[in-house]
């Protein structure tokens, strides 16, 4: 590989690390204390009129959760899984005004429940509305997945003419693959570090993994065929000069790849050996300590490789974590590239931040 690549991480660290005073509020990262499990980690407003007033003041939509508290396994599972994902929590708290209405309580909760004609003692229901109760997206009921809620939030923002942050779009793509179809493609090139940087920004690519196959340096790509077809992915890889050879997983891929790169440049997939240093451009920077999803990791690594700021792919809270790490480089931060679980990496990082802030 080109020796210049060996110094890129050091240059990136110098370019992207600028000194400033850290002013991170730990409260926005910590779990909501004493909250029922059915509400997850979102800081909910418990009065609808108060939430509607706040939504008017902040010019934001309302995200109203009708939830059984205490509830059944479906209700508690929704809180533990969907409403506790850090990026979903951040999106709910910052892009909307969150209001929780208990569907099995009397008093104010019952009044609001009846005004929306919602059933009592019911599984979780989400409505995203304007302050005057105009629906921005269809009532979310029966879909208790992260992907379902994220899709609803994006649609509501679009219908309300509000910008959709890139981190939420990337999260939707990744969650859709986890709950639906995904495919794998493997490309050989002169340098898999360059290959990761070239392939990761392609819309529809969910993750990249560098390694070796059949005597070649390769990048294994996971992609969403509903966003980009295999044929288009191969064409883009060829155009980017990162498809000197294509390894295919089935006859359909084999035929398509031969049409694009030629018979002699296509082979069936064989044993894959992962590189010991994935996400090379990111590995020499402090971004490797910021908890990210797999798609974010791929995009951030590619941005660093092309000498661009990767912050567009991060949420504001992730950027705040990065800035805190800049000011506290001596702490024992975990390398998230090797972490298999985003929530675990997030909780470990926030816990370390909390320990440091408490000591001050």
Verbal overview:
By secondary structure, the protein is an alpha+beta fold. The chain folds into three domains: 33-164, Glutaredoxin; 178-274, Peptide methionine sulphoxide reductase MsrA (Peptide Methionine Sulfoxide Reductase, Chain A), CATH 3.30.1060.10; 280-359, no CATH class. It is built from 14 helices and ten strands. A six-stranded mixed beta sheet has the order 9-8-5-7-6-10. A four-stranded mixed beta sheet has the order 2-1-3-4, sandwiched between helices. A hairpin with a 2-residue loop joins strand 6 and strand 7 (216-223). The two termini are 46 Å apart.
**Arithmetic mean of pLDDT:** 90
| CATH class category of the largest domain | Alpha Beta
Domain module tally: 3
Number of helices: 14
Spans of at least 5 consecutive residues whose pLDDT stays below 50 are 3-22
CATH A-level architecture of the largest domain: 3-Layer(aba) Sandwich
Distance between the termini: 46 Å
How are the strands of the biggest sheet laid out side by side? 9-8-5-7-6-10
CATH fold topology of the largest domain: Glutaredoxin
């Amino acid at each position: 590989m080109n020796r210049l690549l060996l110094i890129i991480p050091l240059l990136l660290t110098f370019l992207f690390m600028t000194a400033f005073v850290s002013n991170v509020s730990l409260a926005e990262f910590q779990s909501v204390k004493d909250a029922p499990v059915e509400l997850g980690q979102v800081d909910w407003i418990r009065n609808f009129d108060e939430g509607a007033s706040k939504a008017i003041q902040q010019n934001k939509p309302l995200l109203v959760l009708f939830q059984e508290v205490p509830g059944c396994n479906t209700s508690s599972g929704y809180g533990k899984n969907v409403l506790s994902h850090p990026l979903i929590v951040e999106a709910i708290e910052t892009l909307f005004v969150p209001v929780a209405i208990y569907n099995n309580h009397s008093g104010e909760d019952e009044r609001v429940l009846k005004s929306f004609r919602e059933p009592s003692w019911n599984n979780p229901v989400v409505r995203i509305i304007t302050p005057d109760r105009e629906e921005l997206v269809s009532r979310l009921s029966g879909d208790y997945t992260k992907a379902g809620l994220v899709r609803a939030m994006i649609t509501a923002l679009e219908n309300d003419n509000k910008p959709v942050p890139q981190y939420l779009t990337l999260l939707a793509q990744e969650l859709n693959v986890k709950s639906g179809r995904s495919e794998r493609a493997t490309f050989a090139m002169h340098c898999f570090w360059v290959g990761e940087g070239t392939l990761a920004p392609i819309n529809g690519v969910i993750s990249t993994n560098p390694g070796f196959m059949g005597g070649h340096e390769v990048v294994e790509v996971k992609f969403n065929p509903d966003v980009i077809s295999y044929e288009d992915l191969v064409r883009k890889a060829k155009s980017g000069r990162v498809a000197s050879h294509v390894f295919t997983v089935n006859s359909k891929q084999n035929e398509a790849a031969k049409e694009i790169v030629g018979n002699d440049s296509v082979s069936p997939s064989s044993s894959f050996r992962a590189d010991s240093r994935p996400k090379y451009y990111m590995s020499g920077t402090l971004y490797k300590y910021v908890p990210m999803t797999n798609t974010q990791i791929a995009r951030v690594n590619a941005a660093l490789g092309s000498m661009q700021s990767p912050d567009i792919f991060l949420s504001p809270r992730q950027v705040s974590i990065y800035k805190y790490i800049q000011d506290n480089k001596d702490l024992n931060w975990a390398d998230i590239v090797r972490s298999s679980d985003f929530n675990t990496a997030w909780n470990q990082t926030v816990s370390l931040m909390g320990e440091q802030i408490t000591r001050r």
